[in-house]
Structure formats: structure tokens, C-alpha cells
Amino acid sequence: MRARLERDFERFRAALPDDLAGHVRETYRIDLTARYLGFPVPHPIGKGSGQLSLNQEQLENDAVAGLAFVVLKTVIAEDAAGTRAMDAWAIHESRMKIERVRSASGLEGWTVTWKGRGWDRSFEEYLELARAAGDLTRSGRMVVVPSVKYHLPRLDEGFREGEYQYTTQRLARAWGGALLALEKDFSPTLAGDSLADERGRIIRWLHEVPVLIRRAAGEVPVRIALKLMNARHGDSFQVDMVEAAAGADALVCFNRLWSADRGVAYGGYDLSDRNLRTLAAVKAARVQRPALCGTGNVSSGRMILEYAKVGCESVQLHTFFQLPLSEYPATAGSRTQRALHALVFHPESGLIAGMLDLEESGRLQRRDGELRFLDLTVP
Ligand SMILES: Cc1cc2nc3c(=O)[nH]c(=O)nc-3n(C[C@H](O)[C@H](O)[C@H](O)COP(=O)(O)O)c2cc1C
After folding, report:
1. Which residue from 26, 74, 164, 282 lies 20 to 30 Å from 183 (Cα-Cα)?
2. Dihedral of CA 3/6/7/12: which sign?
3. Which residue owns the Cα nearest ligand 1 atom 12?
4. Is the Cβ atom of 297 under 6 angstroms away from ligand 1?
5. Over pLDDT 90: what percentage of the chain?
6. H or E element: which one contains 86?
7. Helices of type H across the chain
8. How much is the average pLDDT of 121-146?
9. The whole model's pTM is what?
10. Using a 6 Å cutoff on CB, does residue 188 contact ligand 1?
11. Is 224 a pocket residue for ligand 1 (Cβ < 6 Å)?
12. What is the SS3 assignment for 326?
């Protein structure tokens, strides 16, 4: 199998097989089936919300590349009159810089430095994209869901329910079908904002936001993923946040770290170290929690397995899709294709190599002759 993996890695440098998960299952008897927000997906690798899911062309390229799922850029909620309480998050900024970053533990990773925030075009344009996302999801080619930043009040204020209602109902109609699936973003810029100074305020948001979104959708059932921020209140509060978010259907853990000095969000190994440490604490404490999707410095198949071992049924990446082309071992294809090639087939750091190692060490057993990715996520 190892020799076969070496050969696959070499021959797929130029192009991936059409049915990536099918090939892995047939060749290695490895079932990569994963789950994102209740949707079964052929493998665990998706794209996180951001600058790489802003238009239909990006979605089409990712579907062709064989990505499992995509989360659209975060839109700022508005009411019927177009008022947005979180307007400060809808600023325009296009320049992004990919940089190397060294973690406190001394590991060299990558981070994208960017001063922008949410969707900066009209809500109508976002609804167009959400329509395309719903069509793609129903076609079975790739799951694509919207992401929203809704109003978050101070403790003595009420939620602006008009924004919840208008935004959720328009999205439900545009995304279509009998169900709406979406992410609610609690971003690093929010973690760095004075709104997130108080722990009690954050806990209240996590309790109430899923209730408000479901109420806003009326008859339409909603699957809600809360994308949790890395708050500035330490590891044990991070576990409290997971506990408070029990009303969601899934949690995306956890968005980038906030640098108060530089006024920017960042990633790299500091981010994955913190996320994995917190998720290990959640697992050890047997906290009742929704399904998990990991995010943060996923830059190898082995890192996907680290997130799986602490319960993540899939992962969503941003930075690894933005590296200089010379960083990918593939020689052709889109960045998404090149990233998938490295993540799945790399003979040392890839997903297949990592799962074969886990089998050898007795951590993962074959069932009916197959190694199953999701078996790793079971406590
Ligand atoms: C330039 C940039 C823009 C982002 N914008 C959003 C966003 O609008 N909404 C959101 O939920 N996450 C956003 N993210 C977070 C990513 O989706 C992802 O969760 C995070 O960067 C951690 O993954 P990574 O280490 O693979 O980049 C953004 C990240 C980057 C780098």
C-alpha cells in the first residue's frame, strides 16, 4: 500500500482522479466519508468562509476540483429597511498578504494578513450567490452554505429581531429547498472588539442566537453551525463557550486568533495548538456538544487527523488554499486541486499515510475490511 501511495502521489501531481474518494476507497479500502452540518460528504476537506468564496466562478472551480463543501463569505444581516447593526463589519478591503509565521512553540507556518471584514457588496448580490449555492448543494456535486453575522447586543439591550427575520427569510427563499443550512460567524475582529469584553455577554449570545435564527425562519427548519471565535478569556472559558452553544447543530472550532498589537487576525501553529488543546479539554470533560467541524492551520492530512481525534467530523481551510504555488507538490491544477493532492496523497504527511499509520499502531481498526475516517471521531 505504501508503494502504491508513492506511485499515486507521483502520478496525481498533474491531475487528481475524477472521483477522489472513490479512488481512495477502491485502492486502499479507506472510507473517507465525513460529515458537515448534518450533510454526509465524500471526504472531510472543505473551504472556510472568506475571500475564496465570493463568486460563482470560485464555487464552480471548487466543485470541479472535488472539494467536499464550501462556506460562502459572511454577509452582514440587515432588516427590511436595509439597516445593519453590525455595519462596521461590512468594510471593503481587497489586499491580502500571505506570510510565514513562527508559533510560540517554534513551528513555522503560514498566515494571511488582511484588514477586511464581511461581504461588502449588496445583500441582493449575496442572495444571487446563495441561490447558486443551494442549486449546487441539491445537485449533489458539493455542499455550499451561506454565512451570516447577525446583530449581537450588549447585556442590557435586546436583539434586533427584524434583522434576524428579514435576513434569514430571504436566505431561506434564495438557498431554497425544504431546509436552510447556514453558519453564524463570531469572528476574530469581534473577539478583539469591546463588544466581546464581557464573558456573560458572549454566553448569552451563544444561548440565544440559535433560538432567534430558528424563530426567524418560521416554518422552514434550519441547520445552524456556530463558528466560534477564540475569545480573549483563556482556555477554560473557551470550553464554557462550547457548552453554552448546545442549541446549535454544529460548531466550527475555532476562528483565528486576534493580535491586539497589530490589530489583525492570524493563524499558523499558535492557532492549531490552541484549538486542539481546547477541543481535547472539551473531550476530556465529556461536555455535551453539537457535532464539530475543525478550522485553523490545517496544512497536512495529519493535521486533519489531529482534529478528527478530538471529535471533528470535517475541517474547513482558508490559508492552505492561498500558498505560493511553489509550496504545493502538484505541478498543475487550481490551488484547491493542488491542496487536495498534498492533503490526501502525500506519502508522509497525507491523510492516507496517517490513517495507515493509525492502523499499524492499533488506534484504528478495519471494519468489513475498511478503515473509516469517521471512526476516529467517536470518543
Ligand atoms: C482573508 C480571510 C478572510 C476570512 N473571512 C472570514 C469570514 O468572512 N467569515 C468567517 O467565518 N471566517 C472567515 N475567515 C476564517 C477562515 O474561514 C478560517 O476559519 C480561518 O482562517 C482558519 O483557517 P486557516 O488557518 O486554514 O486559514 C477568513 C480568513 C481569512 C484568512
Report:
1. 282
2. positive
3. 49
4. yes
5. 89
6. none
7. 2-11, 20-28, 56-65, 123-139, 161-175, 188-191, 199-217, 235-244, 269-284, 301-309, 335-345, 351-360
8. 97
9. 0.97
10. no
11. no
12. helix
